[in-house]
Specification:
Layout lengths: L2 H25 L4 H13 L13 H24 L4 H7 L3 H12 L6 H23 L7 H30 L6 H8 L4 H11 L2 H9 L3 H28 L2 H4 L6 H12 L6 H18 L2 H6 L10
């Protein structure tokens, strides 16, 4: 990689890692469903006036928005609202790296290799350790519903990956290229209405209006960060790296996100994990590394970039 792109990769990992701490901070003043709605409202506007609609069918834009915005983030945000620590959320969410290949095997006829199976089994042990620790330790206890919802979040993320892949393949078949940033911006129009509907199911209209009228500086910062830093800037860097380098080189980069997430949660939120939760975290991370990291790719990380994909 070029030095500039290595620095951008570090920025990406930092932005996405801090994302979990910022979510926690935002949830301190804004209910989870309303926070998701605000995130996507500012993801779509004003960017939608400057970015062209993605070259794909409307159904894929809608599906992508529903899976990511409504499915993934409603589960993630509500899970964190009712007690899921930011650090654990960051690592469990990466389980999508195992779910995506399984769905790709089912819907795209792709094969799963032995490394992915071993990695998945290893990560399952880590999840079991975290679940056991969370159930038996009153100090670090996590509600069962929070854990179940968090496991649903990577499933929705994985489904969105398949939707994005199908849309991309169909665009390529027409000799066109799917712009991922455009997809993120335009699909951002989908979540706000259903998320406001969910917010009204959990809180009264008066409560939500009162929250909006009395947004704190931290809440405003959280919304701006989630929309512009974590979503638009983060996905902008990611799409640039994906279009410049082989996936074997860029795929391992998000594995560093839980590291920055844990550090920021420890420093800013003062989160403390039990020894067994730390053990589970390390085992899951090991599973992700086994399944995703290509040693040769790591050696090439600091080498010259491959030809840009047109």
């Amino acid at each position: 990689m070029k030095r500039k792109d290595i620095l951008l990769s570090i920025l990406l990992v930092t932005l996405w890692g801090l994302n979990f701490t910022v979510i926690k901070l935002g949830l301190g003043g804004v209910p989870s469903m309303l926070l998701v709605a605000l995130r996507y409202l500012f993801t779509a506007f004003p960017a939608i006036f400057f970015i062209k609609k993605p070259k794909t069918e409307l159904k894929y834009i809608i599906l992508y928005g529903l899976m990511v915005g409504v499915g993934q983030f409603s589960c993630l945000f509500y899970s964190m609202q009712i007690g899921m620590p930011a650090g654990i959320a960051s690592i469990v969410l990466q389980i999508q790296a195992f779910i995506s290949p399984v769905l790709a095997m089912i819907f795209l006829n792709e094969k799963i290799n032995k490394k992915q199976i071993i990695g998945f089994l290893t990560a399952a042990v880590g999840l079991a350790l975290i679940a056991a620790a969370s159930a038996g330790d009153n100090t670090n206890k996590i509600p069962v519903l929070a854990f179940v919802l968090l496991l649903c979040a990577p499933l929705f993320w994985a489904i969105s990956n398949i939707v994005l892949r199908i849309a991309s393949d169909k665009a390529a078949a027409k000799g066109e290229k799917l712009n991922t940033i455009s997809m993120v911006v335009w699909s951002g129009l989908i979540p706000p209405i259903p998320m406001i509907g969910l917010a009204l199911m959990l809180d009264t209209p008066e409560t939500l209006v009162n929250v909006l009228k009395n947004l704190s500086g931290i809440s405003i910062f959280a919304v701006i960060y989630l929309a512009f830093a974590a979503t638009l800037t983060g996905y902008g860097i990611w799409s640039m790296l994906v279009s410049t380098y082989p996936m074997s080189i860029v795929a391992p980069i998000p594995l560093l996100v839980p590291v920055t997430a844990l550090l920021s949660a420890r420093i800013i939120l003062l989160e403390k994990l039990s020894l067994m939760q730390w053990s589970g975290f390390i085992v899951i991370l090991a599973g992700l590394v086994i399944a995703n990291v290509n040693i040769n790719a790591i050696k090439n990380l600091f080498g010259k970039p491959k030809a840009t994909v047109e």
